[in-house]
Design goal:
- By secondary structure, this protein is an alpha/beta fold.
- 40% of the residues lie in helices and 22% in strands.
- It has one domain: Peptidyl-tRNA hydrolase (Rossmann fold, 3-Layer(aba) Sandwich), CATH 3.40.50.1470.
- The protein contains 7 helices and 7 strands; from the N terminus they run E-H-E-E-E-H-E-E-H-E-H-H-H-H.
- The radius of gyration is 17 Å and the shape is globular.
- 33% of the residues are buried.
Length: 204
């Protein structure tokens, strides 16, 4: 089943811009910009929405909920009910503390893993949507409060890393649009050989 909707999770408002919790917004913005799309505020859905024309593959929508993170599912659920999209036609892009900065992982089911935005989508849409998780870990310093960490901003060095890896992140999203989910998962979730070597050296 093809993807009809990409959802980037984040918090609205200037005070949350460029925080770790808003990396889903960052990728959604970059995706729309790369395709020369334009955002439109759709108050009936409590969201900013962009429509991307894909020719024979039909229209693709990109959505940024304008509720706060823990109510993201309201916008997603309302939009999907209106257009009669099922969960399998939706990919949700969001931050993942348990992945290293710049790493990505694709999954299609499971718990919210403590992510309030994902829990809200599960509540209002149901399970089965594709989850494109973007690493923001590890938590530094280790003892920092979780809320303070995810609502904190990337350091200049981290921001440089994210900017450099953004094309690869977008390419991973493209895989979901052009390949079946099993093939996309096989490519996105496979650890590069260099990572194996580095981990082995650290364990010696």
């Amino acid at each position: 089943m093809s993807i009809r909707l990409i959802v980037g999770l984040g918090n609205p408002g200037r005070e949350y811009a460029d925080t770790r919790h808003n990396i889903g917004f960052v990728v959604a913005d970059a995706f729309v910009r790369a395709r020369e799309g334009a955002w439109m505020r759709r108050r009936e859905f409590e969201a900013d929405v962009a429509k991307i024309t894909q020719g024979a593959r039909g229209d693709l929508f990109v959505l940024k909920p304008q509720t706060f993170m823990n109510e993201s599912g309201r916008a997603v659920g309302a939009f999907c009910r209106f257009f009669r999209f099922v969960p399998e036609e939706v990919v949700v892009v969001y931050d993942e503390l348990n992945l290293d900065l710049g790493a990505t992982k694709l999954s299609i089911s499971g718990s919210a893993g403590g992510h309030n935005g994902v829990q809200s989508v599960l509540t209002h849409l149901g399970d089965g949507f594709r989850r494109y998780r973007l690493g923001i870990g590890p938590r530094q310093p280790p003892g920092i409060d979780l809320k303070d960490y995810v609502l904190g901003r990337f350091t200049p060095e981290q921001q440089t890393t994210l900017t450099q890896l953004l094309p690869a992140t977008l390419s991973g999203l493209d895989l979901l649009l052009t390949q079946d989910v099993a093939a996309a998962m096989n490519r996105l979730n496979r650890r590069p050989p260099s990572d194996d070597r580095n981990r082995h050296q650290e364990e010696l």
